[in-house]
Design brief:
This protein is of the alpha+beta class. It has six helices and four strands; from the N terminus they run H-H-H-E-E-H-E-H-E-H. Strand 3, helix 5 and strand 4 form a beta-alpha-beta unit.
Length: 150
């Protein structure tokens, strides 16, 4: 079955993003504030839309199909652009309430952060910034989309 953009439900893209990030229907449902059965139905619709299983059960849990990995990379670019399109206008740091999460070493915070962070909050006073140390799990979290690459 060929699906074109006119027949695709673009509202499902955010749910898809969460499903691909969590790699678990129940956790994605909780994050998306849906029941597990509703998220399962959403996954079924997404599978039909993309003509791919997207998530497949393995002995280690769910894994992304190659198509799902490609879609996940595209969503990292597309979803922020769609949000900006809906929000309209240019990015205005003075009114932005976005959240930024940075994983870095203490050294990086000392060298870069002491000059960067004050300027950041001067220009974007409502921005939320979380600085977390690098850990052995940081790269795994990046891979699973819990830390966005910049």
């Amino acid at each position: 079955m060929t699906v074109n953009i006119e027949n695709a439900d673009l509202n499902l893209l955010k749910a898809l993003d969460v499903l691909l990030e969590e790699r678990h229907v129940s956790r994605a449902a909780a994050r998306f504030h849906l029941s597990q059965s509703a998220m399962s139905r959403t996954l079924s619709r997404l599978r039909e839309t993309f003509g791919d299983e997207l998530l497949v059960r393995t002995a280690q849990g769910y894994e992304l199909t190659p198509r799902a990995r490609a879609i996940q990379q595209e969503l990292e670019f597309i979803l922020p652009r769609l949000r900006a399109l809906v929000r309209g206008g240019e990015f205005d740091p003075a009114t932005s309430t976005d959240a930024i999460r940075v994983n870095c070493t203490d050294y990086a915070v000392t060298v870069i952060g002491t000059r960067l962070f004050p300027r950041l909050f001067e220009q974007a006073p409502h921005l939320s910034l979380t600085v977390e140390p690098l850990s052995p799990r940081t790269y795994e979290e990046i891979e699973h989309g819990r830390v966005r690459r910049v």
